[in-house]
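Objective 1.3, modelling of assemblies. Example input:
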Amino acid sequence: MRSPVATAIAISFGLIVLIGYFIPADSANLQFILTIRSILIGWAVVLAAVAALVGVFNMLFVNMKRMTAKRNPDRFGFVLVLAFLVTFVAGLWFGPGNSDYQKAVLAVQIPVEGALMGLVAITLTVAGLRLAQRRKTLMAGVFAVSAVVFLLLASGLLGMLSDFPVIGFIQRLPIAGGRGILLGIALGSLTAGLRVLLAADRPYTG
Amino acid sequence: MDSQLIFTLVGFVLTLMVFSYIFGDNFLFRLAGYLFVGVSGGYVGALVIDQVILPRLIYPLLTEGPIAEKVLAGIPLIFGTLLLTKLSPRLARLGNIPMAYLVGVGAAIAVGGAVFGTLLGQIRGAAEPFNLTDPANSMGGMLEGLVILVGAVGTLVYFQFGANTRPDQPPRRAPVVEGLALVGQIFIGITLGALFAGVYAAAITALVERWLEIITTIAKFF
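Predicted structure (tokens):
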């Protein structure tokens, strides 16, 4: 078996956390399992934070490498690295909760996010028109009709019809597909999680 | 110059840089994108250190307290240090053990969340309209519940791609499965259409808000 220690750690700690779900909070005899579980989840939170930090610094190092590459260097990488370092050092110096620091960060984030969201509106319009022109299937037809109906409902143009019970029924119809999709995602997560806990999948051995 | 005016001007310039993408991928759009990623990455890094790593990993080791508390803080410190080796391709193997811990605990939380958070909650929600002991449930509500139940089952069946095979014939799903999958296709279309409408409405709102910001900024100077 490849990486037996890592596999044993994943299974044992994973099972302790999983067992905790089935123990009532007021159980006196098995309270120690809930305590251990709480400590284990606390460690996982810290490790997830370290993993996020590893991801962020990996992005920085990749961009530094691309910036200084001999063939086709990425000149925009300099902007990213400089912006990262200034924001990171200022964040540690003043604290991320500092109101002036937050104002400066938000002065960049809000306009870019808002404008990107605005571009999404344009892209969605073009994509919607192309879908209507090119794909004439049952799903595309239902999708288009549903999108128009829900846009009209959201716009408030059909406000005078809101007293009709059929409008409420139409507004609740997406619950069906949403519920099916959510159940599918949950079943997928359950299968993937159990495969990890049974060591059928070992994504950490790479 | 007033700091608020500087932030307004920065926002104005960045908005125009992003909107320049309407004319195709260009230098200004890329510059705004790289700046955004750099600032967001730096902010996330500072936030993670300030809110999680310092208070939960470093301070418990530095402050006076029971030895058990220091031992409990020492283990994630060792795991965290090993995880940092993932940044180096040569030492990355050392990071497998904390990764295994993270994946194992994460998988258990995912299983628990899927069962207790989604599966049981959604099944309860689907069964609720048929609860005859609840006086609030009417015949109309039951019919609506039935439509939504059939839609949810159809949606699940739509993603069922197993089929029977017979000699000299292409694989085919059973007629009941085909019928339910067709119903599921209609309900998926309705749901995706509703989601599209929601995202589109939000995007239009953002677009209008940005244009108003541009107009307001220009009006300030003229």
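The mean pLDDT of chain A is 90.
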